[in-house]
């Protein structure tokens, strides 16, 4: 298990979080990511980013008044590919517009 403090990046931590998951964690290892909340959109965006990568978001919780923590498990390549192909993940990666859904 590794802990990463991304608070110094403020709202620009998504790329660094992705890089740390891909290169800093071993398969089936858990990473704890601490980041600054801001206007709360970063919470959903970070969860969506983890899901779009095919990894497992194990927990998401408030750390203190201004910081948030997510716990991510890095999954093996085969499992990741299967998850990325799932319809639920596809909606996160490529959300359909209301017009496309109506057709």
Give a structural overview.
The protein has 103 residues and is of the alpha+beta class. The chain has a single domain (2-92), classed as Translation Initiation Factor IF3, CATH 3.30.110. 44% of the residues lie in helices and 24% in strands. A four-stranded mixed β-sheet has the order 1-2-4-3, with helices on one face. The chain is globular, with a radius of gyration of 14 Å. The termini are far apart.
Observed structural traits:
single chain, alpha+beta, Translation Initiation Factor IF3, four-stranded mixed beta sheet, 5 helices, 44% helix, globular
Strand order of the largest sheet: 1-2-4-3
Counted beta strands: 4
CATH architecture: 2-Layer Sandwich
CATH superfamily: TusA-like domain
Regarding quaternary structure, what we see is single chain
Helix count from the secondary structure assignment: 5
Structural class: alpha+beta
CATH fold-level name: Translation Initiation Factor IF3
Q: What's the pLDDT, averaged over the residues?
A: 87
Layout of helices and strands:
Layout: E1 2-5, H1 14-24, E2 30-36, H2 41-53, E3 56-62, E4 67-73, H3 77-85, H4 87-93, H5 98-102
Parallel strand pairs: 1-2
Antiparallel strand pairs: 2-4, 3-4
Helix pairs in contact: 2-4
């Amino acid at each position: 298990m590794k802990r990463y403090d991304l608070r110094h990046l403020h709202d620009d931590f998504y790329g660094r979080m992705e890089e740390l998951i891909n290169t800093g964690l071993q398969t089936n290892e858990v990473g704890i990511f601490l980041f600054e909340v801001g206007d709360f959109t970063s919470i959903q965006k970070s969860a969506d980013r983890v899901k779009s990568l095919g990894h497992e978001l194990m927990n998401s919780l408030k750390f203190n008044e201004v910081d948030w923590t997510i716990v991510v498990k890095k999954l093996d390549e085969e499992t990741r590919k299967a998850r990325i192909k799932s319809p639920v993940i596809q909606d996160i990666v490529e959300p359909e517009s209301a017009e496309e859904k109506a057709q």
